[in-house]
Amino acid sequence: MLNLALVYTGVDVLGFDSGLQQNYVNVVTMEVSLVYSFLVYKAFVWRDDTPYASRAFLQQLSLYHLSAGSSVLARILLFPLLQVAGVHYLLNVAVGIVAGAAINYVLSDRYVFTDPGKRSPGKGKSA
After folding, report:
1. Tens digits of pLDDT across the chain (127 residues)
2. Which of 41, 54, 95, 118 is disulfide-compatible with 126, CB 3.0–4.6 A?
3. Is the Cβ–Cβ distance between 67 and 45 less than 8 Å?
4. Closest by alpha carbon to 62, among 26, 2, 111?
5. Residues 102, 110: contact at Cβ < 8 Å?
6. Taking the alpha carbons of 51, 42, 68, 21 in that order, is the dihedral positive or negative?
7. Left, alpha or beta for 88 (phi > 0: left; psi -120 to 50: alpha)?
């Protein structure tokens, strides 16, 4: 929803309405939405207390970008496979969203919001 609101604001309110400008708006709003989701995960899902002005925070943010990128890549690869299998495009997208969210959650739990000193193979954040 945030992404849609920001794109609408950029295009219809601020007037970035040429094709190239719309692409720029799309890229910027995707990044803003990604950082927003990272902050929501950090604050409310994992209740991570890593200081915002720290090297560890920047590392987490970078790893979260990789995690989210992995989920997008999985969705891109999954769509044609389900398409060939004859899955309706709306169900296909829904399956992709669920798969992408699951991948992002697992990667975030195991690699983004975990204390590297306490990480062990196959384990998420230590209690």
Report:
1. 888 899 899 999 999 989 999 999 989 998 999 999 999 999 999 998 889 889 999 999 999 999 999 999 999 999 999 999 999 999 999 999 999 999 999 999 999 998 665 544 444 444 4
2. 118
3. no
4. 111
5. no
6. negative
7. beta
Is residue 111 within 8 A of residue 70, CB to CB? The reply is no
| CB environment 7-38: b (16+ within 10 A), e (fewer) | beebbeeeebeeeeeeeebbeebeeebbeebb
Q: In 3D, which of 123, 122, 124 has the Cα closest to residue 45? A: 124
